[in-house]
Write a structure and sequence with these properties.
alpha/beta, inorganic pyrophosphatase (n-terminal core), Diaminopimelate Epimerase, Chain A, domain 1, 2 domains, 6-stranded mixed β-sheet, 5-stranded parallel β-sheet, 13 helices, 39% helix, 19% strand, binds adenosine monophosphate, binds manganese (II) ion
């Protein structure tokens, strides 16, 4: 094992950014609002510093986030551009190949894989860290960047409901509103974008949810995608609804993917990041994920319940 590198200071990273002339910014695979929002806000910051900056990602950005992009999506980093990565807990989860020069993130298990690392697990979203760089560099946040940062913070706090919300997150949001963000417009753009297929698969996820004491698990299989015409990612939209059951501490969304089963875990108290790492995945204490290869969701559910039995009450049911 190599010794863990030190986190850089915002001042060091600001000085590094000032020296950049061409930058390709990417984020983790399976993007979310913080991934795209913090990456795009970093692109705008670099442009204000006089750099040529682009967003690139190997997977298409989903429709509901595409309006954030500053240009047509690039699917790989252009030749000769410095690679900067945001919101990505491990280098192998980055959206494009290459050696990252900068790693901006808030996952506590981030191993500081880049030349410069600005990692703060207390930040509710990676976007908070990008916002700090605007402050550090004295760059005004213009409306498109403000909308990107708002989208990011709103996403990673579950719409300001999760335990990671801090006074600081709200203070930043107040500044973003002063920069022109209208939350009701953001709600329309981010939430009123579903298709009937998505609505149907979310319904299936809810119908198939089962309770085991303090745990709720749902499993979604290939047949369910066929039946609804929806995708694996569409089905994940159901995860927050699973949390509505009283007395439940951990919720799990297990969905079939070509490699096997992908799991998304959420909790109020249990360290699900630790559980995800036992299956080769990772994430935050209260929001984490992993993929088990060659295993279908029903079997993945048994494997997960066996692990969860050590930390939560499954109510004697299995
Ligand atoms: P998700 O359930 O996909 O929204 O992911 C929740 C959190 O877990 C995010 O912070 C992800 O970065 C992290 N995560 C999900 N899958 C993995 C994985 N296979 N390896 C490492 N981290 C993951
Ligand atoms: Mn993310
Ligand atoms: Mn994030």
């Amino acid at each position: 094992m190599t010794t863990r590198a030190e986190v850089n200071t915002p001042a060091e990273v600001a000085a590094f950014l000032k020296g950049i002339s061409r930058a390709a910014v990417t984020t983790h695979t399976g993007v979310d609002g913080d991934a795209v929002g913090s990456a795009v806000a970093l692109v705008y910051l670099l442009r204000r510093l006089g750099a040529e900056a682009v967003f690139c990602h190997g997977e298409p950005v989903p429709e509901y986030l595409r309006w954030l992009l500053p240009h047509e999506q690039l699917f790989e980093a252009p030749e000769g551009y410095d690679l900067l990565v945001v919101d990505t807990s491990r280098a192998d989860r980055a959206g494009v190949g290459g050696t990252p020069r900068l790693n901006i993130d808030h996952h506590e298990d981030n191993p500081l894989y880049a030349e410069y690392n600005l990692v703060n697990p207390r930040a509710a979203a990676s976007a908070e860290i990008v916002y700090d760089l605007y402050l550090e560099l004295g760059v005004e946040v213009e409306k498109p960047a403000a909308e990107a940062l708002y989208t990011a913070i709103r996403t990673d706090t579950g719409g300001f409901r999760f335990r990671n919300v801090s006074p600081r997150a709200h203070e930043i949001v107040a500044e973003l509103m002063r920069a022109g963000v209208v939350p009701a417009e953001m709600y329309d753009r981010l939430n009123r974008t579903a298709t009937i297929e998505q609505l149907n698969i979310v319904g299936l996820c809810l119908a198939k949810a089962r309770r085991y004491g303090e745990v709720v698990v749902t499993t979604i299989e290939n047949e369910d995608y066929e039946r609804t015409g929806a995708t694996e990612l569409d089905s994940k939209e159901a995860i927050d609804y699973l949390r509505s059951v009283a007395g439940v501490d951990v919720v799990a969304h297990l969905r079939e993917v070509p490699e096997g089963t992908k799991a998304s875990l959420r909790s109020e108290a249990v360290d699900v990041g630790e559980i995800a790492r036992r299956f080769g995945g990772g994430g935050h204490r209260l929001a984490a994920g992993y993929t088990v290869e060659g295993v279908r969701p029903e079997k993945a559910k048994e494997m997960l319940l066996a692990e969860l039995a050590r930390v939560v009450d499954l109510g004697g049911a299995r």
